[in-house]
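A quick word before the example. In earlier lectures we treated sequence and structure as two separate objects. From today on, think of them as two lines of the same record. Here is protein-serine/threonine phosphatase written that way.
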Amino acid sequence: MQDTRFDLSAFGLSEVARCGVHLREAVSGASSADAAAQVVAEFFHDSLVDGRGDRACPVVGVFLSRPQAAPAAQVVAGPRARQERRLSLAGLSGAYAPWHGTEGSAALDLPVPSPEAARQAPLAYRLLDRLGAWATADPDGAVPPLSGVDVVHVSDSQEDAPDEALRAEGVRSLLAFGGTLSPGEWFAVVLFCRVALAADVVDLFSAVTSSARLALLSGGRPPPALEAEAVRTSLEDMENLVARRAAHLQSTVARLSSVTADLRRSQQELEQRERQLRDEATIVELLQQAGSALAAELDLDTLVQHAVDAATGLSGAAFGAFFYNVLGETGESYLLYVLSGVDRSVFDKFPMPRNTQVFEETFRGLGVMRSDDITADPRYGHNSPHHGMPEGHLPVRSYLAVPVTSRGTVLGGFFFGHPERGVFTERHERLVTGVAAQTAVALHNAQTYRQEREAAMELQRHLLPTLPRVEGIASTSRYLPAARDRGAGGDWVDLIPLPDGEVALVVGDVMGKGVRAAAVMGQIRTACRAYARLGLAPSEVLEHLSVLVDDIAPGCITTCVYAVLDPAEDRLRAAVAGHLPPVLRDPQGRVRFLDERVGPPLGVGRRRYPQQEIPVPPGSRLLLYTDGLVERRGRPIDDGLRSLRELLAGPVGEIEADCDSWLDTLADGQHDDDIAMLYLHRPEDASQQVSAVVREYAPVSGAVPDARQLVSEALHEWNLQHLVNDMMLIADEMVANAVRHARTPLRVELRRAGERVVLEVTDSSTEEPRLIVSHPGEFGHRGIFLVNAIATRWGTRRIDGGKVVWAEVKAS
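And the structure line, produced from the sequence above:
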């Protein structure tokens, strides 16, 4: 069968015509009316589709009603007695169990009308009864349709709706159409549809009925007169259908014409109303945008530009300006301005407006000034040297000026101009006055914020140290406040040279912003420097700081990294309190985070913080930082840490350039939090290499001359003979003191690193030497004064199980 498809959801006149043509082509050559009925059933089953191209009718049946003794398509002439009629399912496509047939068969054959037929095929019986399939035949055997009904549509909400078996197949409606096939015979086609049919589509099947009749007749070789009558009926049905559609179209056109007339009469009103609504919507949108921008903005320059842009748009001015007062660092006030509607260069050659009669009301905050033609105002043109607008000034006729005041203080003023007369109305004045009121609040907030932020920044600048120069270590630091103007925070870094040649490295972050955070940071930093100079271990420093934070700022979470770098020993001792771990790059370019042991943030009371010790040989680089460097809105912190690792593992060079490059890459001006960085590099310069000799001695008096000899030999080997006497005196006093107080072996170490020579004596005693003035006749406590006089620096530091006393002299 030819593949011809018709969309039931878009069935129209053209589909009716094409369906008739293809239907007749499909049944051509059928040997009987029953064979033609089967072809018709298959045609509708295969050809009707839904909007998606799927089969629209899962079941199609074609019924024939004939006298019991009459063969198919037999023409009976002349009067005869009324005979019993039978209903047969002549064609079936698709399976439907209640009809007791299989696909392609027509097993249903029942007398009608009869209770048996109503019982065995109730759905078909009711549908065909409504079509008049077994109406009483006339004396000639003709069976006319009942009341002319030849199409019946049943939706799924009606009494004869599809049963459960059909609903399971997605059937939503039933469509039956038929009529007289030939004298004494009647036909009907029943479609079980998955598509809900509209009334106008159902109406089209009156013409499809005639096409189906022609197709069924062609299978039984009808007499020419009967076939001609069927063709004529088909054409009449098609013409009637076209006429009905044309009448419906004409009625619709008439209604549209009437509506069009009404629309034409109201078109101008609608257009005018639309313009008004559009203008109102623009005003509302501008007001909303202005309010949101002014409420959220704290940057003064951005704020005033938002304000003048919004006010210029609301007033309909050709251009607008906003003149406002700001205070300089010395506290003196000066005037600035922003423009909207024209380029700033247009006004660059003109001086700032003075307090003339026209400007006085605005600059003194006396009230709003609105003029339809400012050049005709009696206050205009009285001031030299211009006596009006300067030459080259944009033309101004309509003029509107609104002061911006807050708590009796004039903060600035809006000025608007237009070259035409009478542009500014009372409504424009109200709108701009509203923006001026919002601007006054926003300006006051912005100025207050700027003052607080500058105070916090100034406080923080004074609290943050200038890094001291440490021999053998290149160091630099960075501090960047948050890019979104949230105020200075509590981030800090510090580098603290310790008396024994070591250096303390600190980076921390106090939660919060503003003056309070900066003040708390300053107290913590000062305390940290004091604890560092006591020679406390990193874990002990953090323990003391935690107690301090809990005391001075309860509930203020503070994170910190405290580390001590010993260049002589090439080691770093570090403790971390809830902070992001430092990053170490070794001389071979390997990068690691020092995150093996991390304790809680400061401020949780006295707590022992874990400490780690890491080798840091010459050529290493170390970075301490706060979370603002790697954390950003929209970027997980893990991604930031991964990027930081990649940067340190890549090419590195001069530390200042490294810092700038890494900040550009990781922050790029978009950081939401403060950034603090402390970056160190231990150069591999041979002049900075450390030379050292170490000996251990028993705590006996003989250790003193042995230590003196060790010092002398080492200094001669290093070509530092000029230091021999001084260093031997220092060794005498320090070793003798250790022998006097210690009960375990002594450790003596002499190191040279560049221009520094350091002698360290380690013993098990916790008693530290102090500068104590001896009483007359008392010989103790004098050796330490000798050490203090000779050494450039000296000191002690506690270690597990004892102490280290050290003294440093310059090699040159």
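Notice the following. Confidence is low (pLDDT under 50) at residues 70-82, 101-106, 136-149. We will return to this example when we discuss secondary structure assignment.
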